[in-house]
Amino acid sequence: MTSADKASNYSPIRRVGSDAGHHFFGYYNKTTWDRDGRNILALRVPMATADLTGKEAAEVGYFDLDDGDRFEVVDRVTTWNWQMGNQLQWLDGEPGRKIIYNIRAENPHRENVPFPEFQSRIRDLDTGETRDLPLPVYVVAPNSEYALCINYSRLMITHKTIGYAAADKEPPVANAPVDDGIFRMDLRTGEFKLLMSFDDLKNLDHRVSMDKAIHWCSHLEISTDSKRFLLLHRWTERVEDETCFLHRLITADADGGNIRLLECSDHPLPQLEDSFDPNAVGTFDYEKSEYQISHPLWVDEDRIVVWGPHDGEIHYQLYNDKTGAVETIGPGVLTENGHMTFSKDGRWLLSDTYPDDQTNERLLFLYELATGERHDLGSFYTSPDLGKHNRCDLHPRWSRDGREVCIDSIHDGERQMYVVDISDIVDDEVGASTRRAAE
Questions:
Q1: Side-chain half-sphere CA neighbours of 345 within 13 A
Q2: Measured over all CA atoms, what is the biggest interatomic distance in the chain, rounded to whole angstroms?
Q3: pLDDT tens digits for 49-74?
Q4: I need a surface site. Which of 103, 172, 290, 434 has the fewest CB within 10 A?
Q5: Between the CA atoms of 232, 137, 42 and 295, what dihedral angle is there, to the nearest 10 degrees?
Q6: Radius of gyration of the chain (CA)
Q7: Phi and psi for 361 in degrees, rounded to 5?
Q8: Residues 6+ apart with CB under 8 A from 51
Q9: Residue 319 burial (C-beta neighbours within 10 Å; 0-12, 13-18, 19+)
């Protein structure tokens, strides 16, 4: 099959919007569509790439699909990065069309808050009313009652790709402090409390590799019933080399109790030797590491999907949070790290790949758990010149009805959002499954 023939078998795709500027959403862990499927959240910026300094503004808004993909601007922010956007998301537990996103505080010297420069804003798109909250959010509970919050200034030091730059200079951060970590914030009152400090995490099943390391958390996610959350606890002695990151997958109750350690990839690091050349590390070596634990997400209230090592082999893994049981997904078929989510019925895994070392192409695909069949939806080029922090991952996101997928891509030379129609695949398979059951 030629490349042209293969491309002809890919799913239909269209760019969202046609106005000037570059549009993107960011991460893969939340849908861009509102409940009615009419509006798609997005950020608009004037450039396709830039090294962010904390002064670049992005317009927060949404595409109106019923009005020719018109882009409606609702705010401007300087709290964003190319990977995660600015944590813009729908508040599905609230009536109407309410969104939440992160902003830079007007008073960066606020007292009695752990991260004075950053906070969050709730906006009612129907009335235009806004309400500011004291902490920046990382993830919001499905019931929209609370959010988990972390220090984006710490991320600028440990994992710059997903941090926010300070407007002036970066504040100092300690390696494993008792007063920084994961905070829970009530979205109605703004009250917050520290659930888990980095000192707590360092002392949880302590490893020698933690002693001289700086600690942080990322990939916080809340279960579908809003009762538990997961996190990746990471630590390193060399922040500039991501292949030196060490990882643990941890879960806890929404109040920080009942902590469970599901996986740990602590291992010897020859990269810490003085003779190691960090310039020899490729752009995506970290994502393709055999010790990487990444992109965990709740499938339901009990199960978690993650890319990571278990029993000496790295795969897409399905963890049961209650029993600790681990099941490998798609061995021999799903062989690369990606940004994965499940369909609401649990039948389909949606994911992507990082750029191929030779072609710089990224694949978007569906995998059906029942049959073990993989459907490649498209292949998308990305320039290798973008680098680590400015790259444009596909970050696929489901539509509410499970018949479309939204991605960010730069294959046409612009950073834009695209909708991929997968209805022929999922509808045909539903019909086929029904026929098989009847037979």
A1: 10
A2: 69
A3: 999 999 999 999 999 999 999 999 99
A4: 172
A5: 10
A6: 21
A7: -95, 145
A8: 389, 390
A9: buried
